[in-house]
Amino acid sequence: MKRLLSLLGNSATYIAGYALGSAGLLWGVAVGWIGQSWWGLLGAPLFLAGVGPCLWSEDQP
Q1: Lesser CB count within 10 Å: N end or C end of the chain?
Q2: Where exactly are the transmembrane stretches of this chain (predicted)?
């Protein structure tokens, strides 16, 4: 049971991380590339903050 809860918690963390990363990527494309604005660069830290921990974590589900 503990293992199942641990896996569910890890999965929720990864889903949230990838959602944040996707939002950052969409922001960068929509505002930076399509809108031709420097504000699009704010999407990069969002992308790295969301996806980075998921990619470099040792205990992926």
Answers
A1: N
A2: 12-32, 38-56
